[in-house]
Amino acid sequence: MLPRCAFSVCHVLMLVLCLSAAEDFDWTKNDHGSFYYGTFPAGFSWGAGSSAYQTEGAWDKDGKGLSIWDVFSHKKGKIQQNETGDSSCEGYYKVKDDVSLMKELKLNHYRFSISWPRLLPTGIKSDHINEKGMQHYDQLIDHLLENKITPIVTLYHWDLPQVLQEKYGGWQNISMVNHFNEFANLCFERFGNRVKYWITFNNPWSVAVEGYETGEHAPGLKLRGTGAYRAAHHIIKAHAKVWHTYDTQWRAKQKGLVGISLSGDWGEPVDISNQKDIEAAERYVQFYLGWFATPIFHGDYPQVMKDFIGRKSVQQGLGTSRLPTFSPQEKSYIKGTCDFLGVGHFTTRYITQKNNPSSRSSSSYFSDRDLAELVDPRWPDPGSEWLYSVPWGFRRLLNFIKTQYGNPMIYVTENGVSEKMLCTELCDDWRIQYYKDYINEMLKAIKDGVNVKGYTAWSLLDKFEWDEGYSERFGLYYVDFRNKNKPRYPKASVQFYKRIISSNGFPNQREVENWRRKAVETCSSSNQLLAAATRKSKEHAELPKVWPVHDEV
Ligand code: NOJ
Question: Where does the secretion signal sit in this chain (predicted)?
């Protein structure tokens, strides 16, 4: 997600958008609009995702410690409407219900995260292990496996134990590397007999930039020009350490894989005949996904980041670059620490070159890049302000990963679209369109030779959307947050995604159109039921906990 100041630049500049950029690179022979009917490789894994703080609730139950998100969301003015994840979807109490929803969808995998302070209330293993927290994840993992759903587990989806923030400054401090390693090691020890896919960090870009540079996310620090680089540096080291721990202590016995989940928007040059725009677009992607992927695959930061941040630091009169450096030993320790790459992708920007002044007071991650972001006003944007639907950008990003990092094994760990809260609409035709087109571009990328093994729709449920509170709904299932039982209702996209899963792709035009028609038909009756239930709930009636999903397509 981008800071608000960047959006306003986007919106002004989009008016002067140069549309000559609509031409393809030669590895994408199809024009943007064409749809490819075909199926995914056998064994392709279909899933949906969630994260602990966004869905679990039970923020202070059963011995859980505080996370930085508990503390941040309780401060006034940080989250839309001052909402919190205190109860959210009450996922902590609804393991069985939610696994039935996954079964209904016929998911092959479920991606969720473990709350570090639920297992280690102070974050430090030698202080105390919370067995009740352990039991919760044991129950979830066992229940998934009983239902033949593979767990893909994220160790860090942003909820750092508050004690570690207060005592050490969180990811600004190198000591996090060992604390995180201890926590990860405990998870391998206790869950690794059943969990074979581990993700160390989810979207470290957001942790670094929004947590330590813009302060929009917990812990809310605004250490402009340095905080994000320092946090990222420690996160990369922590990731590498955990990968080595698994590799040396657990891999032979448990035979699992350890990866990281990086998010990245695609950046397309505004004018593909302009070398400066081409370089600016490349820089955009290198400062985003490349910031983390390049050290992990090649041992060091992208050259362009070293050059730009180094040069600006000198101009600002600093003796060393604001971008930290890895020693030769660290480089070889970090290089190659990825068994699979998790990719979270939602949107695309057009990029043009723009020189930023490099005064010390204005130094920031954003100004270091010397570029401006633009959007095409014709791109659909049904929900979040930053999320424009640009399916072809997904194929390009996947091809970029293939060429830059030696065609790694990829799991798409997040992809999806939101809607605004006020709309209690289960007939989410625009989400069907988004999934259909993005999944199709992923299929094209696989035909291009990109090694994508699985796809995770983001997200299973509507949930707490960080600083946006509950105002943006990403779920396949609608959650009625006003009702204390937090009942779930299938949106039309449930029906559609389910058909993609059972056909392992898109068989032919007639059938795919039929799925869509049926999905929309079914949801109009669900809509009426939701409306009736809402009326009833106003009369203090109990709602069903899980809405029945209609199967007759
Ligand atoms: C990425 C984050 O990992 C996830 O938690 C969030 O819900 C999505 N972006 C959408 O903003």
Answer: 1-22
**Amino acid letter at 60?**
D
Which helix (H) or strand (E) element contains residue 503? helix 492-503
Cβ 536 vs Cβ 436: under 8 Å: no
The rounded Å distance from CA 236 to ligand 1 centre is: 20
Strands (E) located in 387-475: 410-415, 419-420, 452-457, 472-473
Buried b (16+ CB within 10 A) or exposed e, 301-314: bbebbeebbbebbe
If residue 436 lies in a helix (H) or strand (E), which one and from where to where? helix 429-448
User: What pLDDT tens digit does each residue of the chain (553 aa) get?
Assistant: 333 333 333 443 443 333 333 333 344 444 566 999 999 999 999 999 999 999 999 999 999 999 999 999 999 999 999 999 999 999 999 999 999 999 999 999 999 999 999 999 999 999 999 999 999 999 999 999 999 999 999 999 999 999 999 999 999 999 999 999 999 999 999 999 999 999 999 999 999 999 999 999 999 999 999 999 999 999 999 999 999 999 999 999 999 999 999 999 999 999 999 999 999 999 999 999 999 999 999 999 999 999 999 999 999 999 999 999 999 999 999 999 999 999 999 999 999 999 998 787 789 999 999 999 999 999 998 889 999 999 999 999 999 999 999 999 999 999 999 986 555 679 999 999 999 999 999 999 999 999 999 999 999 999 999 999 999 999 999 999 999 999 999 999 999 999 999 999 999 999 999 999 999 888 877 778 787 777 776 664 444 444 444 433 2
CA distances from 205 to 2, 233, 266 (A): 11, 11, 14
| CB-CB contact of 476 with 98 (8 Å) | no
Q: Give distance in angstroms: CA of 493 to centre of ligand 1.
A: 19
Angle at 443 between CA 265 and CA 146, to 5 degrees: 95
Q: Which atom of ligand 1 is nearest to the CA of 261?
A: 3
Q: How many residues does the chain have?
A: 553
User: How many angstroms is it from 327 CA to the middle of ligand 1?
Assistant: 32
CA-nearest residue for atom 6, ligand 1, is 465
Ligand 1: residues whose CB is within 6 Å?
A: 1, 51, 54, 202-203, 263, 344, 414, 465, 474
d(CA 233, CA 240): 11
Report the C-alpha gap between 153 and 491 in whole angstroms: 25
Q: Which of 1, 209, 458 to mutate to test the pocket of ligand 1 (most atoms within 8 A of CB)?
A: 458
Specify the residue for token string 């056998």. Answer: 42
Q: What are phi and psi of 93, to 5 degrees?
A: -100, 0
Q: Give 230's contacts (C-beta < 8 A, 6+ positions apart).
A: 171, 172, 212, 223, 324
